[in-house]
Amino acid sequence: MTDIDWAALRAAAVDAMTHAYAPYSNYSVGAAALTDDGRIVSGCNVENASYGVGLCAECALVGDLRMSGGGLLVAFVCVNGAAETIMPCGRCRQVLYEFSAPGMLLETVSGIRTMDEVLPDAFGPRDLEEYRA
Ligand code: THU
What we know:
Oligomer: single chain
Distance between the termini: 34 Å
Bound molecules: tetrahydrodeoxyuridine
Helix content: 25-40%
């Protein structure tokens, strides 16, 4: 945890938040994460006139992860339009879990937590691998 620059991650999340398209909820979100090879990836929420198909910031973030070289996430933070730390929604915890490095950390409303604390007993890629084996 000591070598994670949480201030830089937070700044990237706040910057991402300024790109949000949230005309329906008026609730902008920005997310940023550090990858296992030291990149920072980020994303913002992108809403839609068909409300249910709006994209959370975490969806854009994993798109950025894949488009910029792949890898796994080691640290994550997301913020709202007031630059306050918010929790990833339930669906997005699953989206993040898919690409989580072992021991991935999240800055949460109750301090730094591991992915396993935020999404305990998660279903993930290993469950499918074990089933196929
Ligand atoms: N939102 C995110 O982008 N990520 C989350 O983890 C929580 C919710 C967005 C979705 C919607 O555009 C707005 O916040 C209000 O729910």
